[in-house]
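User: Quick sanity check before I run a bigger batch. Here is a single chain. Can you write out its predicted 3D structure?
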Amino acid sequence: MISAEPDVVVVDLPPHSFDVVETVRCLVSAAKSDIAPVLVLIDQLDERVHGLLRVGARGLLLSQASPAEIIAAVRLVAAGYLLALPTIVRAGMDQAVTAPDGSPEDPAAFCLEHLTRREADVLRLIARGLSNAEISAALFVSESTVKSHVQRMLDKLKLKNRVHAVIYAYQAGLVQSELI
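Assistant: Done. Predicted structure follows.
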């Protein structure tokens, strides 16, 4: 049976073909709380990013994302998470986040440099789709050690779960999509 009510509305149209901010605002306000969360695929980081978040978009993702990233984003938004990926957040923070010498600091790099080598390894392996048992075998450590690394990595990066970690790893450039 096909449901007439979607779990997530994905908006992806050619750049500037219509006012996407106004469209999302209308979608969200017309149906009040009954509307499915809206995930917007954007072509570039511009003034629309903050407008989309203000009018109620629950997720923003660059339209160049891989199919796996889009699927993960849809799942996160459907689960109730607000999804604004590091490159999108970075665009809004570039002016606000500066290093002690006054030069812009990369928030993603700042977070990643606080991971231990093992936590970064675990993040890369999670992004490649490995389970805790597979990571344990690859790194020659126990599964409980892997679980500890996963939890510390999620805490340090302020991520909700493994799916969010996968998206973060791709956006931060730790791994590259092998899909063409």
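The chain is about 50% helix and 10% strand.

User: Great, the batch can go ahead then.
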